[in-house]
Design a protein that fits this description.
- The protein is an alpha/beta fold.
- The chain is built from 17 helices and 20 strands.
- Helix 13 runs parallel beside helix 16.
- 50% of the residues are buried.
- The structure holds 1-deoxynojirimycin (NOJ).
- 1-deoxynojirimycin binds next to loops.
């Protein structure tokens, strides 16, 4: 296929806008590769597999590492006890610096996951803060007096705010006779960003990582950094459907998306922007595309969750793309189908459409993920079509999934965090020990080594699609024009840039479908890739017969 140019280094390919034109791959470090046999992945394991990601492998541009900092592990790394260091469970400081060097040597940029909304309750700041209302750390967290006492003299929480993981957002600390606030676990106290000393300390930590060569950050739940300073109770919503969670029964007016947040985030971004080519992506907590677009800017992305929420349906995707276009306009969006908090997309999308062939859905969705307008984020394991793993209750690690409370049902995120199967041998090339989460039942056959030798596999498909995208400016940076062609089960769009056009036609169902390419404008169109190794070609009249779950990518001429 002449349209595929061999991947070169990310900077050479895309310059300082690499994060806009390139592809970001998310590694969940505990699940990638374990080199010391303790069953938990580590930084040395990531280094060993950088060639899977670099120009000789998938050919992505950036690697986002889920948190690598010391953590007691109550939220598996998202409860950080020291934001400036490397968790000894994952490796040494030198391992991290080597990882950055080795990644850069392959043209891969390194993105760290910054958890700045909260710390672990084991963090030195909190350990000091919880002791007393006096002292340098007293005001580092969101402390409030009890609203009063109940009939038994027990302190009452300051307001009605809730934890997303269940129960009240407030935990009483007798030493201060006050409550502290936590949107997530009791072990994840929320920091007080309105204290200038806290902001200074956070930004100093950010500079420290930048000085060590990192290229950007993913910002955990960034739109909840600031709360209303008065902390009033949130309005309770009425007339909701039965089964609506306690969290969704409130309008989260005062505990997120505060009007002065853009100024705060601008101060953070100014530091990142001191060197061209660095980026950040904000994790929008519970927000829609409007908030995502409004918080994005020319150097910084914000996740948009619409594709994660959508079922595998051409009609849904058509409506979603139109909505996205209207909301984002010229703003650059992200393209996300999965991450460490969501059901894996091969499982989720197949189930949403009642399709058993998860590999066929994985290949078709890969072709959509890599051809939409925006920066694609690819979660580890999706490139081999990994599926959610059933983890029995007694093995569950994800803490919120272990909480069984009335009216609170939480998806067990262990299912999408199973270790990467690299080979078919015992331990699957992931570990010589006992893996911290079990492998999927299909790991003997579904692994990187097998798919690397099998061009039609999901991995072979990802490699071809990534190479195709990297070689076509219309796919990397073009505008998207949706076309109403084909039947109800077909999604079609044209990407255009620099006088180049790429047409994408996707059949979302297992039944074949024929599409007249006439309305796509001047042809002839010829297939250059897609979900299948041998993409279907239109006939001389521009009629394209698609196989079931086939996505065809076409160029003019
Ligand atoms: C969002 C992260 O993606 C999730 O894994 C974590 O539990 C919460 N933030 C709290 O940090």
């Amino acid at each position: 296929m002449s349209d595929i140019t061999p991947p070169a280094s990310s900077l050479a390919r895309h310059g300082t806008q690499w994060w806009r034109e390139g592809i970001v791959y998310q590694v969940y470090p505990r699940s990638y590769a374990d080199t010391d046999g303790n069953g938990v992945g580590d930084l040395a394991g990531i280094i060993e597999h950088l060639d899977h990601l670099g120009p000789d492998g998938l050919g992505v541009d950036g690697v986002w590492l889920s948190p690598i900092y010391p953590s007691p592990g109550f939220d598996v790394g998202y409860d950080v006890s020291d934001h400036s260091a490397v968790d000894p469970l994952l490796g040494t400081e030198e391992d991290f610096d080597r990882l950055v060097r080795e990644a850069h040597a392959r043209g891969l940029r390194v993105i760290l996951d910054l958890v700045m909304n909260h710390t672990s309750d084991q963090h030195a700041w909190f350990q000091a803060s919880r002791q007393s209302r006096e002292g340098p750390y007293a005001d580092f967290y969101l402390w409030r007096d009890p609203a009063g006492r109940d009939a038994d003299g027990n302190p009452l929480p300051p307001n009605n705010w809730l934890s997303f993981f269940g129960g009240s957002a407030w935990e009483y600390e007798p030493a201060r006779d006050q409550f502290y606030m936590h949107t997530f676990l009791v072990e994840q106290p929320e920091v007080n960003w309105r204290n200038p000393v806290v902001e200074e300390a956070q930004l100093k930590m950010v500079r420290g990582w930048l000085d060590r060569g990192v290229d950007g950050f993913r910002l955990d739940v960034f739109n909840i950094f600031l709360k209303d300073p008065e902390m009033p109770s949130n309005p309770e919503l009425e007339d909701l459907a039965e089964g609506t969670s306690a969290w969704d029964r409130q309008e989260h007016k005062y505990d997120r998306d505060q009007p002065d947040f853009p100024e705060l985030i601008a101060r953070f971004r100014a530091i990142v922007d001191e060197v061209p080519g660095r980026m950040s992506v904000g994790e929008l907590f519970y927000g829609g595309p409007e908030t995502s677009a409004s918080l994005s800017n020319q150097n910084h992305l914000v996740f948009d969750w619409e594709l994660v929420r959508a079922p595998w349906s051409a009609a849904e995707y058509r409506a979603l793309l139109d909505r996205r276009q209207a909301i984002f306009g010229d703003t650059w969006p992200t393209v996300v189908l999965s991450n460490h908090d969501q059901s894996r997309h091969a499982s989720r999308l197949s189930a949403s459409a009642g399709i058993d062939d998860t590999d066929a859905v994985a290949r078709a969705s890969a072709a959509v993920l890599l051809t939409l307008r925006g920066t694609p984020f690819l979660y580890y394991g999706e490139e081999i079509g990994l599926r959610d793993v059933e983890v029995p209750f007694e093995e569950i690690i994800d803490p919120p999934a272990r909480r069984v409370e009335a009216g609170w049902v939480w998806w067990n995120r262990d299912g999408c965090r199973s270790p990467m199967p690299w080979t078919g041998e015992p331990g699957h090339g992931f570990t010589t020990g006992r893996p911290w989460i079990r492998f999927g039942d299909d790991a003997d056959t579904r692994h990187v080594a097998a798919q690397a030798l099998d061009p039609p596999s999901v991995l072979g498909t990802y490699k071809r699609l990534i190479a195709l995208r990297q070689g076509r400016s219309s796919l990397r940076r073009g505008a998207l024009r949706r076309l109403d062609i084909g039947g109800d089960d077909v999604l079609a769009y044209i990407r255009e840039a620099d006088g180049e056009a790429t047409l994408v036609v996707a059949n979302f169902v297992q039944q074949p479908s024929t599409v007249d390419l006439g309305p796509a404008g001047d042809g002839p169109w010829r297939p250059i890739g897609g979900s299948h190794q041998d993409p279907s070609a239109p006939d001389a009249d521009g009629s394209l017969a698609l196989r079931g779950l086939e996505v065809v990518i076409l160029a003019r001429g």
